[in-house]
Here is the input.
Amino acid sequence: MTAKIINGKEIASTVRKNIKEQVDRLKESGLTPGLAVILVGTDPASQVYVGSKEKACIEVGFHSEVYRLPEETTQEELLALIQKLNTDEKIHGILVQLPLPKHLDEKVVINAISPRKDVDGFHPLNAGALFVGEKGLVPCTPKGCIHLIKETGFDLKGKKAVVVGRSNIVGKPVAMLLLNENATVTICHSRTQNLKEELLQADVVVAAVGKPNFITGDMIKEGSVVIDVGINRLENGKLVGDVDFDSAKEKAGWITPVPGGVGPMTIAMLLQNTLEAAQNIMEN
Ligand code: GUN
Here is the structure.
C-alpha cells in the first residue's frame, strides 16, 4: 500500500481562513482577540517559531504583541511582565516560548500565566482539566494531531493508538486526547522494551521522540494512520521527522509529511486557542 498524504499545510490554511472569518465578526461586535508572545534569548529555532506565530496572528486580524527579551532577563522581570499581561484587557492569550535560558525556572514561569490566558495549555490547571475530561485550553500540537486524524475520516473509537514519547508538551496530552476519543492508548518511551511489537499492533501511531527517522516501515502496521510530530534537522540541512517517511509510506494508509504535516497545525491551533480564550473571557 502507498499511503495517502495528510496535507497539514492545506488543512491548517482552512482552519486559519475559518478563524479569520470569526475574527471579522467578533471585531464588528467590539472584540479583537489579542495574543502576547514572549521570547527570552536568541535561540535560532525559537526566533523562527515566534516570527511565524506573529505573522499568523496578524493575518487572522488578532492584536499581536511580541516581547523579545535579552538572554540575561531575570526571573523577577519575566514574572512581572506575565503579571502585567495577566490583567491586560487587550490580551487574551499569553505564550512563553520554550525552552527558556537555564537560569529561568520553566515551571514557575508557566504557573504564573493566568490559566484563562494559557493558550499553550501547559498550566497544571489546564493539564488537569484535560486529565479529568473538563473544559480547558488544550496544548496546540496534540490538538492539531487529533484534527489531522479526524480529517482522514478515521474513527478512533475502539482502535489501538500508540504514542511514542511521553513529554508534557506532546506525548502525555495527545494520549489523553486519544483516550477521550475512545481509542485504546499505549504510551511508549525510551525504556519501552518491545516498541516494534507495540507499533505493529497500532491502528494509529503518533511519533514525538525527537529522533530522526527513528520509526521505520517494518515497524508500521499495514493501513495505519501515522502522525509524525518530529522536526529534526540532519547535518546536510534537510528537515526530517521521527518517522522514516519513504519506508513508512509503503505500509501506512495515511501519513503526515515533514515539513507540511503537524507543524502548520500547531500554529493554527494556537490561533484557535486564542480565539477560544477571548470568547471565554468575554462570556464570563
Ligand atoms: N517550544 C516548542 N514547542 C513549543 C510550544 O508548543 N509552545 C511553546 N511555548 N514553546 C514551544
Summary: The two ends are 51 Å apart (CA to CA). Residues 217 and 246 are 8 Å apart (CA to CA). The chain has a mean pLDDT of 97.
